[in-house]
Amino acid sequence: MYCTYCVITLRDASGAHVSMSPTMPCNAPGSPYKVQITQPNSNNGDSEILTQLMTHVADQFNKAFKVEEMKSEISSRLTALERKLEIEGLKAVEIEKCKKDISEIKDQIWTAQKKYVDFNRMRLCICYKPMFCLYTLSQETIDYLKQPTFDIWHWEPNEMLSLLEHMFHELKLVKEFNINPITLKRWLLCVQENYRNNPFHNFRHCFCVTQMMYGMIHLCNLQKHVSIEEIGILIVASICHDLDHPGYNNTYQINARTELAIRYNDISPLENHHCAVAFQIASNPETNIFSNVDKESFKRIRAGITQLILATDMARHSEIIETFKSKLDGKFDFKNKENIDTLKMVLIKCCDISNEVRPMEVSEPWVDCLLEEYFNQSDREKSEGLPVAPFMDRDKVTKPSAQIGFIKFVLIPMFETVARLFPQIEEQMVIPLKGSRDRQRKSDMENKGNNSFKLLSPPVLVLCPLIVCVASK
Q1: Domain PDEase spans what residues (predicted)?
Q2: Do residues 334 and 224 both lie within one domain?
Q3: Same domain, 192 and 77
Q4: Full domain range(s) for residue 71
Q5: Residues 98-128 pLDDT 10s
Q6: In the annotation, is 201 catalytic?
């Protein structure tokens, strides 16, 4: 028998060990046994068990202290970074460095919580202290911002944030939604953080789509026809429409049976995810730009934003355009909610794929970015044994051939349909689109003459316009 401080044994007259149990013999004069007590040594079981137990307890304490130390260190680093951002007014390069530091801290926290990282996971939102100021914009810049010819490549991330902030003030959205200006800054920064560094679906694309929406609002004089609340829904939906896009389209999500596809039952998984991230950000008090609107207004705003983001799924392209055409056959009633909802869906669709409306020097880099993202996806699909769309295969697709079909069968018909309601779009957008189509045709003919590129097969080329649309999401 072992106890904490000694070893107790029973032995009979011959020195044999007596087992302590209910069956042990009685201690009698004819068969006596005596109790022997000895001090435990390092080889005894109790000592080993005690040592192991103490070691285990010490390890647990060490781990607990290390976790607390890590939390304390991370908290201190975040506080220091936020204070630095708030007080010193960092320049663009310094901002990017601080954002990288914060991103690394987030990764450390995430790694400590999970053993693996899924690229479809909903990213964490950090509420930043305001670290960009409202620029004093020249009148030339203010006027230029409203034009479809606006060159989005000349602006740094912090400048794009400031231009988006200007849109909210100029369109009177800050007043309409009673937005705290500091909250607006935090919201914009958090939105920017939740766009990934994809070749195409990134924060610059978000700004590009929003700037075109801003331009169309002014070009079509939408303030005359819809409420400021509807204008706000258009702008916010444009900003949030591709939040946390993973760089792989809906087709990949469904074929690969990703977490997003499973979560949303293969129904617009990306668009549903963009909506979810948008309202996750808005659920944080420090980044909720709708915190001061009443419940009924927020219900309308949330429904409107969700409707528009879901409309950017190009699988619904024909359905939405045909519905809009049917409403144009009679006199378009701007007081009819269903008409306005359809118009808003068409407008965000136009802005989402409007790059070819812009001058060639602005639109051409976007095609290269989109193809890079396509090729990344097709390479992954090949490695995972999934179906590969021909228009995304780097060994089959060419830029001119794909663009001709896309412009001819998708962009021009859609913008011409909107021009039936707003004739000013014909000159500002439809004519530039036709010029882009002709330029791509000329480039395609020159390439054919040189015979120095890979041709799409006729069946693929015929299908290309619709496939390219779907793939753009």
Answers
A1: 83-447
A2: yes
A3: no
A4: 45-113
A5: 666 665 665 555 445 433 334 344 454 454 4
A6: yes
